[in-house]
Amino acid sequence: EVRLVESGGGLVQPGRSLRLSCTASGFKFDDYTMHWVRQAPGKGLEWVSCLSWNNGLIAYAGSVKGRFTISRDNARRSLYLQMNSLRPEDTALYYCARGTYSGDDSLDYWGQGTLVTVSS
Amino acid sequence: DIQVTQSPSFLSASVGDRVTITCRAGQGISTYLAWYQQKPGKAPKLLIYGASTLQSGVPSRFSGRGSGTEFTLTISSLQPEDFSTYYCQQLNAYPYTFGQGTKLEIK
């Protein structure tokens, strides 16, 4: 069974940093591009970032570029999101998701999310 | 960035109805479009990818069509469990952008 479990969320002051983790199981992690998607309370989905299996392709949404860094450790089957210079508008539930192995990279499995609240 | 516009934002319908949700991309994206369903308090679920390919395990009452800039998600006969929020996402170019969502409610 494919499983993605996010952790690392919490309450943080504006300007501070936080590192999210996503641990994968049930599939060959190092075959897949992995993504972060966020959802502000009561709002829609916002794609944040992705990283290919071999670190060869990295992409970010404009709203986080230069502040967030995505990384992965295939040996640990883990995906990370280092979030620096956090802003109140970064408050959201952060989901880790797997890109499909073949085809268009649509997100076929999602974790349950970890909540990040940026507030003083 | 490629803008993705969904319509309507809200849709009220009854069990057994046929409904269609539209997604328009700001530029041509071939068939690089996916549809997701999200229930309250849950993670999104992939329904359709490649604009028209049903994800494994998704009921056949869901269908997707379109290419280029205009896409549709149709539910042929609404079931009680279908009342949710639906999102489209373009996967043609980074950043991958979502539509703003369509909340499907029971009439």
- Regarding quaternary structure, what we see is heterodimer
List low-pLDDT spans of chain B: none
- Main sheet: strands, sense, barrel of chain B: 6 strands, mixed
Report on the biggest sheet of chain A: 7 strands, mixed
Give me the number of helical elements of chain B. Answer: 0
Estimate the strand proportion of chain A: over 45%
Tally of alpha and pi helices of chain A: 0
Radius of gyration of chain B: 13 Å
Level of helix content of chain B?
under 10%
Overall structural class of chain B, as computed from helix and strand content, comes to mainly beta
With strands numbered from the N-terminus, the spatial order across the biggest sheet of chain B is 2-10-9-4-5-6
Structural class of chain A: mainly beta
The end-to-end distance of chain B, rounded to whole angstroms, is 36 Å
Q: Which sequence of SSEs, written as H and E, runs from N to C of chain A?
A: EEEEEEEEEEE
- The shape of chain B is globular
Gyration radius of chain A (Cα, Å) is: 13 Å
Mean pLDDT of chain B: 97
According to DSSP, the number of beta strands of chain B is 10
Q: Tell me, rounded to a whole number, the average pLDDT of chain A.
A: 96
Low-pLDDT residue intervals, each spanning 5 or more residues of chain A: none
Proportion of residues in β-strands of chain B: over 45%
What does this structure look like?
The complex is a heterodimer of chains A (120) and B (107). Chain A has strands spanning 3-7, 10-12, 18-25, 34-39, 45-51, 58-60, 68-73, 78-83, 92-99, 107-110, 114-118. The model of chain A has no long low-confidence stretch (mean pLDDT 96). In chain A, the strands form two sheets. In chain A, strands 2, 4, 5, 6, 9, 10 and 11 form a seven-stranded mixed beta sheet that branches. In chain A, strands 1-3-8-7 form a four-stranded antiparallel beta sheet, with no helix packed on it. Chain A is built from no helices and eleven strands. The termini of chain A are far apart. Chain A is an all-beta fold and 120 residues long. In chain A, 0% of the residues lie in helices and 51% in strands. Chain B has strands at residues 4-7, 10-13, 19-25, 33-38, 45-49, 53-54, 62-67, 70-75, 85-90, 102-106. Chain B has 107 residues and is mainly beta. Chain B starts with a strand and ends with a strand. In chain B, strand 4 (33-38) and strand 5 (45-49) form a beta hairpin. The model of chain B has no long low-confidence stretch (mean pLDDT 97). Chain B is globular. The A-B interface holds A 35, 37, 44-47, 50, 59-62, 95, 100, 103-108, 110-113 and B 1, 31-34, 36, 38, 42-46, 49-50, 53, 55, 87, 89, 91, 94-101.
